[in-house]
Amino acid sequence: MGFEEEWRSWHETRERYAGAEYGPAALESTNWLITEPAAVEGVPGLWALTGDGGIRGTDLGTSGSVVTLHGPQTLRLGRRELRVFDRRGAVALRVFNPGRAEREAFGGIDAYPPRQGWRIRASFTETPGESATITAVDGSVHQQTLAGRLRFELDGIPLSLSVTRTERGGLTAVFADGTNGIETYRFRFLPIGEPDDDGTVIVDFNRAYLPPCAFSDQYLCPQPLAENRYSLPIRAGERAVVRGR
Fold first, then answer.
1. Alpha helices in the chain (DSSP H)
2. Dihedral sign (CA 69, 72, 76, 80)
3. Considering only Cβ atoms within 10 Å of each terminal Cβ, which end of the chain, N or C, has fewer?
């Protein structure tokens, strides 16, 4: 499979994922709970934290049934699906609704045409013990360990990109550029493979993709670090969600 065919296959997979019945566009609400039972809009029963990282629902239906959710467990109530969301020990109940207007109107993901020139050779340098302050879109901050920095050139301009390591292997970055707010969403995510033994790695901006919060404002995405914000436009990868299906 050639370069363009591989990219189009990746893009089609992304669109199927984003528009899936219980995909990111279906996230209706993120509900931060306490140990006292409380109602959640659109969902029957009362919901509360269990104190051990789980969520309990009570008074469900006429039988007054009780359910408890932990970790990856999900629960369907009608068409809605409930999931536990754990953000560094703070637990919320997320509600996914295939009938959410934004999900029903999802028409795809607009993207720049793939171009080989956006595959950039970079040099990776590890930064042992270094961490950075990450700010999420809701203002929450936390410290995250950096894997290192990538150094490369775009249009003859030397740039660096601070990256973290994913649980499944490989590197990842959050970046912003000169197209944001005009041609593209306000920032994007970028997957990067593991560097070679000599530290070289290919950074493929054609695979830059929209964060989950582009599909629903109920996601709490991390924002780019200051050093990952470029004034230079990067016209590659995904641009914006297409509405109006």
1. 3-18, 101-104
2. positive
3. N
Q: What is the DSSP string of 76-138?
A: EETTEEEEEEEETTEEEEEEE-TT-HHHHTEEEEEEPPP-GGGEEEEEEEE-TT-EEEEEBTT
pLDDT in tens, the chain (245 residues): 799 999 999 999 999 999 999 999 999 999 999 999 999 999 999 999 999 999 999 988 756 689 999 999 999 999 999 999 999 999 999 999 999 999 999 999 999 999 999 999 999 999 999 999 999 999 999 999 999 999 999 989 999 999 999 988 899 999 999 999 999 999 999 999 999 999 999 999 999 999 999 999 999 999 999 999 999 999 999 999 999 75
- Candidates 129, 108, 233, 124; CA nearest to 173 is 124
Instruction: Answer yes or no: are the C-beta atoms of 66 and 58 closer than 8 Å.
Output: yes
Place of tokens 């996230």: 27
CA–CA dist 39, 181 (Å, integer): 36
Predicted TM-score (pTM) of the model is: 0.94
Q: What is the widest separation between alpha-carbon atoms in the chain?
A: 69
Structure tokens at 51: 């104190």
Report DSSP state, residue 224.
Answer: P
Which one, of 104, 15, 89, 106, lies nearest residue 54 by Cα? 89
Q: Are 175 and 210 in contact (CB under 8 A)?
A: no
Q: Which residue has the tokens 């171009």?
A: 115
